[in-house]
Q: What sequence folds into this?
């Protein structure tokens, strides 16, 4: 039987006790330790919440430019016409009850030597530890003609949920029966490995009901379906036979918004709706902090027991921006955030973080309006390999069913509550 | 009463000087909340974990691992943890109200 500090805080709630406990975790700068979290998506919001839960003496500031949380997971349901944008959109208001200092602003500069971040609004925040959770930058500059066509609303990626999600839905609604929907998929690694194939399934589900003469052409940079291949193959053959033309090793090189043409190195393909997802890299914030340091220069290498950068001390990176053999999913970001938060609490108290962190990923994909499947893995930190490794139990459902479809909805409701309340 | 609590706090601080602020059971269990809901309380079809008896939790995980109990996804997750970790997580979930 032992009393830990949190149990004690629960029974006391006394300010004097809090001050006394804070005394064991003060920093060189004196006073409460300060952690700044940048980006309030799945990773950042969860990290801020758990930092306050596990380190009640820590002053946590969460900086996010957007008013509301818009979920990328489940956004394919909006594109397929099964949900609306309100379903994806959630308030940050409930995070306040954890004592997080929410700042609606955009970070424009990071100084790791002085340990400060500066916002567009002209504010500067000092930190003992900085957590970067910016998600991805979509590299529209890697596809010829993309920027112009995107500015003219002729091509979208809709790989960050928001206005482009709604626009893509509108374009599908306006598409004539017999039209061609072209989807371009980037080479790995990219955000949400099964996402493109779920989107194709749900667009097909919509077209089959409302515009059955239409066609979907899939231009995949990868040689084959990257994630849940048996599941999506089953769905496409069972429900959408003849509608989807899949072309592997067909990277999109260019788009032309005026002619509505998507080009690969083999073909020019006429499209009615162009949904081309370019390659990605860790958010620009990571470059600002000097932590986009993996061999490709696109992602951030971290120490996996703390998610601290291998390049810059006191800067932690979580979520899609991390260089790892882990799927870039909202679920992963949420669970990485908890390992990171616990590690920061220990580090600020002068201790070492947990040596063998274990996290799970569970990712549901809908395959029609009534079926879905999943992929799930547990990842254990392996100190020898310096990586998270699945001990062997992970895998994906080969076919979709109604139970997984129901669990997918329950997953969404639960993870949104976990991240935001 | 107030003074006693402060003394207790000082004692707890000393006792925990070499322990983790977040115990392993809670840290392991935190990963589960992403599907099973905050505090182990689920909305919708996924079962809640809060307040489960420890023995029932441990047995369930063992049975998912062996295949004795059929599962949608838990047969995959159960294979990622040890018996000792089932016990730590079971202990933690049993205390959640």
A:
């Amino acid at each position: 039987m032992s009393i830990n500090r949190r149990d004690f805080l629960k029974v006391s709630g006394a300010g004097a006790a809090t001050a006394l406990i804070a005394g064991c975790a003060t920093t060189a700068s004196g006073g409460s330790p300060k952690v700044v979290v940048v980006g309030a998506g799945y990773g950042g919001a969860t990290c801020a919440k758990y930092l306050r839960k596990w380190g009640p003496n820590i002053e946590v500031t969460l900086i996010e430019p957007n008013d509301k949380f818009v979920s990328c997971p489940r956004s394919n349901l909006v594109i397929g016409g099964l949900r609306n944008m309100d379903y994806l959109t959630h308030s940050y208001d409930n995070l306040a009850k954890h004592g997080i200092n929410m700042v609606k602003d955009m970070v424009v500069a990071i100084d790791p030597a002085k340990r400060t971040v500066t916002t567009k609004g002209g504010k500067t925040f000092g930190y003992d530890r900085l957590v970067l959770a910016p998600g991805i930058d979509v590299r529209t500059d890697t596809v010829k003609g993309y920027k112009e066509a995107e500015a003219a609303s002729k091509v979208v990626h809709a790989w960050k949920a928001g206005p482009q999600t709604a626009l893509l839905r509108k374009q599908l609604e306006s598409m004539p029966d017999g039209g061609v929907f072209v989807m371009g998929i980037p080479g790995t690694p990219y955000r949400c490995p099964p996402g493109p194939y779920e989107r194709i399934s749900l667009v097909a589900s919509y077209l089959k009901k409302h515009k059955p003469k239409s066609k979907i052409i899939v231009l995949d940079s990868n040689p084959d379906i990257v994630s849940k291949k048996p599941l999506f193959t089953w769905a496409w053959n069972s429900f959408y036979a003849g509608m989807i033309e899949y072309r592997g090793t067909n990277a999109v090189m260019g788009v032309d918004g005026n002619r509505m043409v998507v080009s690969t190195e083999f073909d020019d393909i006429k499209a009615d709706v162009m949904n081309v997802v370019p390659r990605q890299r860790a958010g620009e914030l990571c470059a600002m902090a000097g932590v986009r340091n993996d061999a490709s220069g696109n992602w951030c290498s971290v120490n996996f027991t703390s998610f601290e950068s291998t390049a810059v001390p006191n800067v932690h990176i979580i979520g899609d921006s991390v260089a790892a053999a882990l799927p870039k999913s909202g679920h992963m970001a949420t669970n990485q955030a908890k390992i990171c938060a616990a590690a920061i609490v220990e580090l600020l108290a002068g201790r070492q973080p947990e040596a063998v962190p274990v996290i799970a990923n569970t990712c549901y994909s809908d395959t029609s309006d009534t079926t879905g499947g999943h992929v799930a893995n547990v990842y254990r930190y392996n100190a020898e390999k310096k990586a998270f490794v699945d001990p062997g139990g992970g895998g994906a459902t080969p076919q979709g069913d109604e139970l997984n479809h129901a669990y997918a909805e329950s997953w969404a409701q639960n993870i949104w509550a976990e991240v935001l309340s | 009463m107030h003074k006693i609590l402060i003394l207790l706090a000082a004692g707890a601080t000393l006792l925990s000087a070499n322990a983790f602020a977040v115990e392993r059971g809670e840290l392991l269990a935190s990963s589960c909340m992403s599907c099973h809901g905050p505090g182990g309380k689920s909305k919708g079809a996924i079962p809640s974990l809060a307040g489960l008896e420890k023995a029932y939790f441990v047995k369930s995980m063992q049975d998912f691992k062996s295949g004795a109990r059929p599962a949608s996804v838990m047969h995959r997750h159960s294979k990622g943890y040890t018996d000792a970790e089932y016990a730590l997580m079971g202990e933690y979930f049993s205390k959640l109200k």
